[in-house]
Amino acid sequence: MRHIKQVLVGLLALVSLLWVAAEPGVFQSAGFFAIRAVAVQYTGVLAIALMSVAMMLALRPRWPERWMGGLDKMYRLHKWLGITALIVAIIHWLWTQGPKWAVGWGLLERPARGDRPPIENQVEAAFSSLRGTAEGVGEWAFYAVVALIALALVRAFPYRWFYKTHRLLALAYLVLMFHSVVLLTFADWMTPLGAAMAVLLAGGTFSAGVVLLRRVGAARQVKGRIAELTYYPGVKALETVIDVPAGWPGHRPGQFAFAMSDASEGAHPYTIASGWHPDHPRITFVTKELGDHTRGLKERLKVGQEVRVEGPYGCFTFDDDCRSQIWIGGGIGITPFIARMKHMALRGEAPDWPQGQVADLFHTTSDVDEVALAKLAEDARAAQVQLHLLIDARDGRLTGARIREAVPDWREASIWFCGPASFGAALRADFATEGFPVDKRFHQELFDMR
Question: Which of 23, 238, 266, 380 could bond to 385 as cystine, CB 3.0-4.6 Å?
Answer without folding.
Answer: 380
